[in-house]
């Protein structure tokens, strides 16, 4: 079966303008030639630190942003493949029902003046689903996300953060979309509630075979919910692979450093030195060669001169590191 | 390994039976109820809990900077307890000279968002110099500048001589938090309160800042109160841990004991619900049912009982378990009372 998404050389640059004439003086390479695919029923996590471009990728996929270049080939369930990148707003409109988003902030993403039932029904209303069908579907969705039927006639303020996130998930699922993009869907929640929402997402993946792009910075969360991971650094993917393998033996030093930086919940294993020095590079001033080389303990002359391409190093495993084949990086079991 | 408890370490700050209320038109909300904590020189007290548990309010109460309409109803905040210099901060007015000299002097504060303590309109150096001279009025400007350079160097800012003239907006988030730490150290404090100091930072930067805090705290024998929601941060940093839930300390223990044998069902549940980088594919988490109730709707008896998997029928909903005694370890739970 075809992939839901085939993204090729996706690029999004933002101009830096300055001066009286507002001339372009530079470019922020927020996303720079990113390629990946998403299989049907698969969850791909985009991980990285702030400014790595993961949210910009997500917004380009949903065409909330127009990419600078590249293609986004999208195949809705039972539909034809179509490149989203060049489409106009009007051309995108009939496709929108096939792609939905789950937002990070459950307080900002729900209209406080709308009843929960109306919030969940809105995507169906916009897409011309008849009233009776809408009401039945809202009931079904509430049950699916574990909310009582009485929630329909209440306002969002009556619900806790975790419950609101359930409402947001129900709304995203209303039209049974072929693609769901979730941008940090659990990072605003308390630990105990976060666990509930992670479990809910896992249940929904199993029951509905969701195809999901999961944008996150928390490697713990990602390990639970994703089938594959793409690690981003300053606008580029530096490594992709199946979740378990990537965690067990990373093929890029940045992935290894990210894993080593997660505070271990074990007081008998304390870190003696930080795994990585320095700060994330500025996307407006990307270092020459490999963008990671100023922080990389393994950098050589080649790394300072030549930008490494994302290449297949092992079956299903890609790395953008010149030394991926010769070095072994520590992972987590 | 965490070091062995240093019995000889002097206690620098004791909070005793602290109660903080927020008086609203709709009624009074008790945000902090009967909290007792001790901070020892050269030791790290980790305070952990979910939002609304009162951990930040406790820190603000210590410093007398609770936002209105919150106020300390009762309890003591003793600086240098048991010595001739003992001072009860809770009795001082929030804008009294004594409390202002303690704030930023003996007790430094590190915020989650360093821009809480910094202004974008002044250079980093000017702001640190101001903080330095606020507590040492006799210091000349060149001396204060030299001290600011030293502080920036201590917090690991590369090229402190050059960076002293930078504005905060010219710095990355990680460098800004280092400046925030330098600000907190400006008055040479022996107590530091850090409220979620790494929550806004990326994971690689977090690792750097946590190690910086640990080194500073050890080298300067500072008593550090580290407030966080992250059990991983607690494990890496704390010597002793206080777990808070709905305004109360529900468990207090040395960090190794807390992780090896948590005694309160809430602590156990919290530890199990943390997403794990060692998880199996699609592994479910042991979640706690429900959500943290609003402090205005505190459940009767043990406030955790509606979510507790080990609730004792006819007991936990009716009676409140005894609080963890001041200056001791333990759990505020009937189960812990039954099996000491």
Keywords, separated by commas or semicolons:
heterodimer, A: 333 residues, alpha/beta, Rossmann fold, 8-stranded mixed beta sheet, 4-stranded antiparallel beta sheet, 12 strands, 29% helix, B: 340 residues, 7-stranded mixed beta sheet, 11 strands, 22% strand, globular
What does this structure look like?
The complex is a heterodimer of chains A (333) and B (340). In chain A, helix 3 packs parallel to helix 5. Chain A has a domain at 3-226: P-loop containing nucleotide triphosphate hydrolases (Rossmann fold). Chain A is built from 10 helices and 12 strands. In chain A, the strands form 2 sheets. Chain A has an 8-stranded mixed β-sheet, sandwiched between helices. In chain A, strands 2-1-4-5 form a 4-stranded antiparallel β-sheet. Chain A is 29% helix and 23% strand. Chain B is α/β, with parallel strands linked by helices. Chain B is 30% helix and 22% strand. Chain B contains 11 helices and 11 strands. The chains are: A alpha/beta (333), B alpha/beta (340). At the A-B interface, helix 5, helix 6, helix 7, helix 8 and helix 9 of A face helix 6, helix 7, helix 8, helix 9 and helix 10 of B.
């Amino acid at each position: 079966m075809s992939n839901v998404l085939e993204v090729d050389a996706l690029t999004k640059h933002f101009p830096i303008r300055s001066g009286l004439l507002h001339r372009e003086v530079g470019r922020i390479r927020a996303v720079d030639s990113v390629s990946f695919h998403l299989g049907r029923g698969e969850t791909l996590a985009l991980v990285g630190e702030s400014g790595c471009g993961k949210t910009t990728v997500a917004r380009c996929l949903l065409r909330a942003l127009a990419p600078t270049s590249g293609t986004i080939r999208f195949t809705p369930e039972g539909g034809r493949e179509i490149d989203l990148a060049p489409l106009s707003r009007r051309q995108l409109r009939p496709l929108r029902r096939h792609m939905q988003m789950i937002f990070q902030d459950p307080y900002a993403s729900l209209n406080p003046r709308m009843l929960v039932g109306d919030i969940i029904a809105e995507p169906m209303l916009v897409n011309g689903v008849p009233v009776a069908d809408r009401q039945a579907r809202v009931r079904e969705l509430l049950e699916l996300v574990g909310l009582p039927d009485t929630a329909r006639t209440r306002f969002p303020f009556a619900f806790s953060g975790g419950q609101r996130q359930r409402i947001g998930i129900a709304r995203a699922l209303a039209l049974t979309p072929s693609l769901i993009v979730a941008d940090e869907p659990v990072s605003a929640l308390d630990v105990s509630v976060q666990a509930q929402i992670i479990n809910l997402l896992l249940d929904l993946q199993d029951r509905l075979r969701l195809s999901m792009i999961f944008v996150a910075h928390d490697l713990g969360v990602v390990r639970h919910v994703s089938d594959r991971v793409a690690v981003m650094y300053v606008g580029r993917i530096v490594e992709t692979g199946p979740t378990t393998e990537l965690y067990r033996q990373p093929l890029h030093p940045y992935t290894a450093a990210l894993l080593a930086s997660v505070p271990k919940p074990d007081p008998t294993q304390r870190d003696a030195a930080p795994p990585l020095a320095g700060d994330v590079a500025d996307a407006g001033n990307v270092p020459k060669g490999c963008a990671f080389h100023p922080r990389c303990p393994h950098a050589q002359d080649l790394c300072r001169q030549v930008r490494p391409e994302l290449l297949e190093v092992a079956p299903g495993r890609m790395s953008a590191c010149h030394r991926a084949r010769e070095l072994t990086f520590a992972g987590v079991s | 390994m965490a070091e062995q408890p240093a019995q000889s370490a002097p206690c620098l700050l004791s909070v005793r039976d602290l109660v903080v209320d927020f008086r609203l038109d709709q009624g009074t909300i008790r945000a902090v109820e009967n909290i007792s904590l001790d901070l020892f020189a050269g030791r790290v007290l980790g305070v952990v809990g979910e939002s609304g548990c009162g951990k930040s309010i406790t820190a603000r109460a210590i410093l007398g900077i609770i936002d209105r309409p919150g106020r300390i109803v009762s309890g003591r905040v003793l600086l240098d307890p048991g010595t001739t210099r003992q001072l009860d901060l809770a009795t001082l007015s929030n804008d009294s000279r004594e409390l202002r000299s303690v704030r930023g002097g003996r007790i430094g504060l590190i915020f989650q968002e360093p821009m809480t303590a910094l202004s974008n309109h002044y250079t980093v150096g000017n702001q640190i110099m101001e903080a330095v001279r606020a507590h040492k009025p006799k210091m000349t400007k060149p001396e204060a500048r030299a001290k600011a350079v030293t502080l920036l160097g201590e917090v690991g800012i590369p090229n402190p001589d050059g960076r002293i003239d930078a504005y905060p907006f010219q710095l990355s988030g990680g460098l800004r938090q280092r400046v925030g730490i330098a600000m907190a150290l400006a008055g040479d404090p022996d107590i530091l309160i850090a409220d979620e100091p790494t929550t806004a930072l990326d994971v690689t930067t977090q690792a750097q800042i946590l190690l910086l805090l640990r080194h500073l705290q050890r080298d300067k024998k500072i008593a550090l109160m580290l407030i966080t929601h992250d059990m991983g941060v607690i494990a890496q940093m704390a010597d002793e841990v206080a777990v808070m839930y709905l305004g109360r300390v529900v468990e207090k223990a040395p960090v190794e004991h807390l992780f090896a044998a948590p005694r309160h069902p809430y602590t156990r549940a919290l530890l199990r619900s943390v997403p794990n980088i060692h998880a199996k594919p699609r592994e479910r988490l042991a979640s706690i049912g429900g959500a943290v109730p609003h402090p205005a709707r505190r459940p009767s008896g043990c406030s955790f009982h509606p979510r507790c998997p080990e609730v004792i029928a006819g007991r936990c909903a009716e009676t409140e378990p005894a609080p963890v005694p001041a200056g001791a370890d333990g759990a505020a739970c009937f189960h812990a009372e039954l099996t000491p």
